[in-house]
Amino acid sequence: MSTRGVGGVGRGGRTGGAGGVGRPGGGYGPGAPGGPSPYEGLSAAEEAATIARSREVDRVDAVNAVGRLVQTVPSTVPATGMSTRERLLEAGRSVVEEHGYGGASVAAIAARAGVANGTLYRHFSSKEELFVEVFRLVCGGELHAMQQAAQGQEDPAEQVLAALTVFAQRALQNRTLAWALLAEPVDPQVDAVRLEYRRTYRELLAGPLREAVHQGRIPAQDPELTAAALVGAAGEALVGPLSPAASALDGHPMDGPERADALVHGLGALCRRTVGATASVALDAPRQPR
């Protein structure tokens, strides 16, 4: 293991300064200009053996440092059956879920994965690249849940309603993560993934809408336009409740289940009216939190 990867894990790096082993200044390059050689009086073979021993000391010290990190950092991702890359991705998702994108530092992710900070950069070129993959994984999971919900309905118009309902329900159950996925300020690379999945959600809804028009279940319309409007409406309706700054809306606690139910119910009614599906006065009547 390179000793460079251990720098920053609760100790000084080994690549410079006083951290080196076996010679002044650290590292294994030439000594300071004009200074005495630490190998003066040794044969070439003895000098090579001394350098080899110094490197072995550094290697063992580095391995022990990472071992101590894995043993002492709380709430690490279980290593069983997971590659280091997978552990880093899971750690990234977990940290974003708890602290949002802004609170997900490289140090926090590395600690959660049980590895040194430098290990992250052996698997991802940057923090942004890691989060692009994290967002792809999480958004892919949300897309799968929406597809599963839609497949449980025969009426194509109800498929659209079911997909949007599960999207809203899952967002309200995991608000910090949903806020990061939908609206939290992120780096441009991550925002590109966000836009990519908004298009995917739109395409998921457009298919059933097209079929519902074909079957005469809803009025003739542009399925892509309606789908885009529904995705935008759902996102906008959720931004306020998901925002960390929001503590109440219309005098109702944001974390109450009644408020969440009312929001999901209202989105369903909006969906029906938007696509022109047959409405039920009792079903679509506004539901007020108690």
What is the structure about, briefly put?
The chain has 290 residues and is mainly alpha-helical. 62% of the residues lie in helices and 1% in strands. It has a two-stranded antiparallel sheet with strand order 1-2.
Descriptors for this entry?
single chain, 290 residues, mainly alpha, 11 helices, elongated
SSE arrangement:
Elements: H1 44-72, H2 84-99, H3 106-113, H4 117-123, H5 127-151, H6 156-173, H7 175-182, H8 188-214, H9 223-242, E1 248-249, E2 252-253, H10 257-275, H11 281-284
Helix pairs in contact: 2-3, 2-5, 2-7, 3-4, 5-6, 5-8, 6-7, 6-8, 6-9, 6-10, 7-9, 8-9, 9-10
Folded structure, characterized:
This protein has 290 residues and is mainly α. The chain has eleven helices and two strands. It has helices spanning 44-72, 84-99, 106-113, 117-123, 127-151, 156-173, 175-182, 188-214, 223-242, 257-275, 281-284, and strands at 248-249, 252-253. Strands 1-2 form a two-stranded antiparallel ribbon. Strand 1 (248-249) and strand 2 (252-253) form a beta hairpin. The chain is elongated. The termini are far apart. The relative contact order is 0.08. Mean pLDDT is 76; it is low at 1-36, 57-74, 247-252 and 281-287.
